[in-house]
Amino acid sequence: MLNFLKVLKGVVSYFSSKVQTSKKFRKRLLLPFCSLIVCYFVLVGVSGKTFAIDFPAGRILNNNDARHTCPAVCRNHNYHWHGQWKTRPNDQSVCGCGWDLDKKGAVFNHLNDAEQRKFDTFQNAINNRGLSAKDAAHEIGDSDYKKLQGNQYQIRLSRNNRVTFLVEDDTHIVKILIVGGHT
């Protein structure tokens, strides 16, 4: 991110020096525009929307080595490798592992505020922190996480409303089927 900010500052400086701009133009248009760009990258991120939990992986030398090492490291922790890895200053490498959330095709029924907060906590734990469905269910407290049949699971949001979802262990995706209602 710091490199991006340096590049952006360089672009603004170059633009300002090559094009005749007034201080008023830079102050009222150019700087606010650049600030919006910076805010976008800070809030959304430069690298896309993949979140991961880092697990130690010994020493990884390059991308080919990571492609060989990281899938096994993540599988050992019941996660999926997202393609991320890094070597820390102590020469110890880590692999970025996590779960993904899929809500495409889900049926959403009305939830009250408390139920919505629980569902948001559940989905954000998976989507933003890479947690498994079981760990995400633990985040909301007494959710009665249970297996229904096959790879279909359910958590309780309240006495009346549940979330039904699939846990795809091979791809590490939690696919939401129904939010609200009672199965």
Beta fraction = 25-35%
Round the mean pLDDT to the nearest integer and report it: 80
Let me know the number of strands.
9
The helix/strand order is HHEHEEEEHHEEEE
Shape: globular
Number of helices: 5
Poorly predicted tracts of residues: 1-5, 38-50
Largest sheet: 6 strands, mixed
- The N- to C-terminal Cα distance equals 46 Å
Radius of gyration: 22 Å
Protein structure class: alpha+beta
Oligomer: single chain
Query: Helix fraction?
Result: 40-55%
What is the topology?
Elements: H1 2-18, H2 23-44, E1 53-56, H3 63-76, E2 80-87, E3 93-98, E4 100-102, E5 107-108, H4 113-127, H5 133-139, E6 146-149, E7 152-156, E8 162-168, E9 173-179
Parallel strand pairs: 4-9, 5-9
Antiparallel strand pairs: 1-3, 2-3, 6-7, 7-8, 8-9
List keywords for this structure.
single chain; 183 residues; alpha+beta; 6-stranded mixed sheet; 3-stranded antiparallel sheet; globular; disordered N terminus
Written overview of the protein:
It is globular and about 50 Å long. It contains 5 helices and 9 strands, in the order ααβαββββααββββ. Helix 1 runs antiparallel to helix 2 (23-44) and helix 4 (113-127) crosses helix 5. Strands 4, 5, 6, 7, 8 and 9 form a 6-stranded mixed beta sheet that branches. The protein has 183 residues and is α+β, with helices and mostly antiparallel strands. The model is unreliable at 1-5 and 38-50 (pLDDT under 50). The N and C termini lie far apart (46 Å).
